[in-house]
Amino acid sequence: MRFRILRFKPPPKKPAARKPEAARPAIPLPIDSAFFWEGVEAGELRIQRCVGCGTLRHPPRPMCPNCRSLEHDYVVSSGRGIVYTFVVHHHPPVPGKEMPFTVAVVELDEGTRVVGNVIDIDPADVTVGLPVEVAFVENEAGRVLPQWRPQSGKTAT
Q1: 36: phi then psi, degrees, rounded to nearest 5
Q2: Burial level of 129, CB count in 10 A (0-12/13-18/19+)?
Q3: Distance between terminal CA atoms of the chain?
Q4: In 3D, which of 103, 73, 107, 105 has the Cα closest to residue 90?
Q5: Judging by beta carbons within 10 Å of its beta carbon (0-12, 13-18, 19+), is residue 130 exposed, middle or buried?
Q6: pLDDT digits over 17-42, tens only?
Q7: What pTM does this model have?
Q8: What is the CB-side half-sphere exposure of residue 100 using CA atoms within 13 A?
Q9: Which residue intervals of the chain are DSSP H helices?
Q10: Contact, 83 vs 126, CB < 8 A?
Q11: Which of 72, 80, 122, 123 is the most buried (most CB within 10 A)?
């Protein structure tokens, strides 16, 4: 085996010149998700839809992954779906949350998937395929968030 170890002394670093804050251009947000949060406040689960091909996508993105269109609007979801996969969070403690709690990926009846907490059920009773419906719950900070509860009278298939 032959190899060489090259050693060098890097030049001293020069402090970078800082631009004044006023000279820096504002970085635009990549996507406007205001429609989603306005829907949550109104008690609707809104899902972004591509105007070009009709593909639903969540979370909202600037470009359709299917046809690459930049045009989009939204549809109001039925708010029903099934637990696609889930995890029961035991540790580390989360301020304002009672342990354990369940976080699930829910596949909506419309075909797209959304992440959220599963409430009103013991974490041990959550299963893949459990029918759930959206519930809009206000958290400790006063922000309304979509969460999931079992559909009344339904069990996992």
Answers
A1: -65, -50
A2: exposed
A3: 61
A4: 103
A5: buried
A6: 665 555 555 544 456 788 999 999 99
A7: 0.74
A8: 14
A9: 34-41
A10: yes
A11: 72
